[in-house]
Amino acid sequence: MYHLECIECHKRYKATEIIYTCSCGGLLDVIYDYSSIHLTKNDLKGRLSVWKYRALIPVGREPITLNEGGTPLYRVDRIAKSVGLKDVYVKHEGMNPTGSFKDRGMTVGVTKALELGMKTVACASTGNTSASLAVYGAKAGVPAVVLLPAGKVALGKLAQALMHGGKVLCIRGNFDDALKLVRDLCDKEGFYLLNSVNPYRLEGQKTIAFEIADQLGWEAPDRVVLPVGNAGNITAIYKGFKEFKRLGIIDSVPKMTGIQAEGASPIVRAIKNDADAITVESKPETIATAIRIGNPVNAIKALIAIRESGGTAETVTDDEIIRAQHELASFEGIGVEPASASSIAGLRKLARMGLIDKDEKVVCVTTGHLLKDSEHVLSVCPKPIEIDATIEAVRKAVFAGS
Ligand code: F0G
C-alpha cells in the first residue's frame, strides 16, 4: 500500500527497509497507492486526533499513543488587526501531550520503530524532539538516547527528557554536530533514528494540515506561516495538504511560508538567492534555541514546498520574536516559546512589506508551549514584586504609578 521513494532519483525502497536517505544521498518520502485510498469527509467525522487519519498513516500495529493532535485553532482578531490583516488563525501545537508538535511525529515514529523490531530509539535535538522521544520511548518501553547541544536547550525540555528516562547526552557542539553524530551512532549500533530525516516522522506531522482543513470547514487557508529549523514540519504540512487535495477533500494548497531567526536562516537565504541548495551556516545563533540550526536536513524538501506552493521565506530578529511572543500572550492568551512566536513576527513583517494580501486567510502554527522555556520568560518580563503581607502594601503596589 505504500513504499519509500527518493525525491531526487526516484529509487524505491520497501517500507520494511531500515533506511533514512537514498543511496544517492537524496531524502525519502512515503508514497501511497493513492488510487486504493478512498477517504471522504464523512469518514473523518468525530474528535480530532493523529490516529483518526490511519488511512494515510503508514503503520499497521496498535499505536503507542498519548492522544496527540486535536490542538485548538484560534481565530486571533486582535493580532490580525495589529498586523493589518483580516482573517488570521493560530494552530496551537503547544497543546500536544508534551507541549510541542513533535508528538505527532513521535507517536507514528515510535510505533514504526516497534513494528520494525527496533530495540533502541535515538535522536539529536534542540530540545522538543528529545522530550517527545523520551516520553514515547517510555510509553513503548524502549530506551531513548538523545543528543543535545550542551547549554543551549531550554530547561523545560531538558527536564522532560530526564524525567521520562531518556539517556540524555549533552555534546560540546551545536545541533548540526549532534545530528551528524547520532546518524553515525544509529548506523553503527542499529538504533532507530527518529529525527525528521526519517520520513515516517513526517507522516505523523502532516496531520497538522488535515486538522487545519477540518477546523476551517474542509477548506485550506490561503497561507500557512510557521517557524523553520530542521525544515521537517514545513514539508510535512505541505505533504498533508497535497494529499487531501489529491483525495478531493480540499480544493487548494496554501502558500507555505517559512520563518527563520536572522542568525539561523539558511533556507531564507536560499529562497532569496533563488538557489537550489542551502549554504550551511556554521555558527547559527538565536534566542529561539529550538530553531538554532545552520544545516537543516530537510532543506531540499522545504525549498520545493515553498516554491511549488507559491509561498516565501523571511527572517525575523530576536527582538521581533520577543515582541510577538508578548503579543500572543497578552492579546490572545496564547502562551508559546520563542521559536513559535517567530511565525507571528514573520506574519507582521511580511504584512508590512505588502507580501501578504489583506484578505488572505492565514494560519500561523505555534509549535511549542510557553512553559518549555520559562527561563527565557523570566529574563524578558518584569520581575515579580515582593512586598509585606499587609493590605496597605498590596494596595500600594497595585496602584503604584497609577
Ligand atoms: N518550533 C519548535 C518549537 C521546534 O522545537 C522546532 C524544531 C521547530 C519549530 C522547527 O521545526 O525542525 O521541523 O523545521 N525542533 C527540533 C528539535 C529541531 O530538536 O526539537 P522543523
Describe this structure in words.
The chain is an alpha/beta fold. The protein has 14 helices and 13 strands. Strands 4-5-13-10-11-12 form a 6-stranded mixed sheet, with helices on both faces. The chain is globular, with a radius of gyration of 21 Å. It starts with a strand and ends with a helix. The site of ligand F0G has 22 residues, from helix 3, helix 8 and helix 12.
Summarize the structure.
The protein is an alpha/beta fold and 402 residues long. The protein contains 14 helices and 13 strands. Ligand F0G binds at residues 100, 102, 125-129, 196, 227-233, 290-291, 337, 339-340, 367-368.
Report low-confidence residues grouped into runs of 5 or more. none
Bound molecules: ligand F0G
Mean pLDDT: 97
How many DSSP E strands? 13
> What share of residues is helical?
25-40%
CATH topology of the domain at 73-99 and 201-380: Rossmann fold
Number of helix segments?
Answer: 14
General shape:
globular
What distance lies between the first and last C-alpha atoms, to the nearest angstrom?
Answer: 67 Å
CATH class of the domain at 73-99 and 201-380: Alpha Beta
Largest beta sheet: strand ordering = 4-5-13-10-11-12
What structural class results from the helix and strand content? alpha/beta
**Biggest sheet architecture:** 6 strands, mixed
Strand-residue proportion: 15-25%
Oligomeric category = single chain
Question: Mind telling me the C-alpha Rg?
Answer: 21 Å
Order of helices and strands: EEEEHEHEHEHEHEHHEHEHHEHHEHH
What is the second-level CATH architecture of the domain at 73-99 and 201-380?
Answer: 3-Layer(aba) Sandwich
